[in-house]
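User: Hey, my collaborator sent me this sequence without any context and asked if I could get a structure. I don't really work with proteins. Can you help?
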Amino acid sequence: MYEAVAAYPAGDSTVSRQARTAADYGYDGLVVRTREADFDADAISDRYGIEVVRGIEVDAADPGSAAGAVGNYRPECSVLLVRGGTNARNRYAVETDRIDVLTRPMAGDGDFNHVLARAAKTHRVHVEFDFGPVLRASGGPRVQALQGLRKLRELIEQYDAPFVVSVTADSHRQLRAPRELRAVGEQIGFTADQITAGLEAWGEIVARNRNREDERFIEPGVRRGRYEP
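Assistant: No problem. I've predicted the 3D structure and written it out in structure-token form, which is a compact way to encode the shape of the chain:
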């Protein structure tokens, strides 16, 4: 199981501190969302016994700006995320094959519907269940976050769209162990298996993208064989 976190300078904790806590909580891997983070993934992985993976989360004002960033950053990372939160950004993300994860789709003015769920399945874009606001907010914002998660879960289930689970931590203090996330999820309508699957999906994305980077890869389902030049 993996988590995906922000790290210094975008977050309050360094990659090393996040990795140490994630390893203590039983995670197998950690995706670092912060483009500006400066870290030695191999050294940190060896130190804490947890795979550390470079990701980039694109936070653009509109789909046009996001498209330019996606083109620039895709070769630089193992996991490419686009932050949602508006209907336009949500739609752009789930309709773009080069994107791995649509994050925070229900944040701000964002919404999600059956059209977007179908597009996410077609383009194999994972939709993030963001448990951060449920764990860290209170009052009205927490109620809204719960409602958003329930709606999103129903759509993802109905259309069998791919998904990931995260608490969107920008500090090691915000990380939660998988068992804690399962307990929270079960209180709001998720199953323990869904939470586990959402945490494992990060690692599956990493493995898929490494496979695509293999020189023998031609297209999904097609690899260069012994007689190919």
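In plain terms: The chain has nine helices and nine strands. You can pass these tokens on to your collaborator as they are.
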